[in-house]
Amino acid sequence: MASAWLTATAFSITALPILGRIIIEFDMAKTRLGVIAISAAAINDVIGRILLAPVTTLTTANFQAGGFSLQVVLVAGFFSLSWE
Fold first, then answer.
1. pTM exceeding the 0.85 threshold for the entire prediction
2. How many domains does the chain fold into?
3. Which of 16, 19, 53, 70 has the largest CB neighbor count within 10 A?
4. What mean pLDDT is predicted for residues 56-74?
5. Contact at 8 Å (CB) between 41 and 22?
6. End-to-end CA distance of the chain
């Protein structure tokens, strides 16, 4: 089950460079439809990557609350130490 969550979330992230290349090949880069399509794909990509982080954490913690909490605290600590 854990690998299914991870795989499903990873597959939901689009291949943004491929879509961009398709839009350029069809000469749609400066059309309204092309801009909307690449913008929607970029937003989807960002949301997918944001969702991938907690799903990866849950997967590596084997869906245990203690392990998940520890990893979140460790990431928060790393972030706070890395902040300039």
1. no
2. 1
3. 19
4. 84
5. no
6. 39
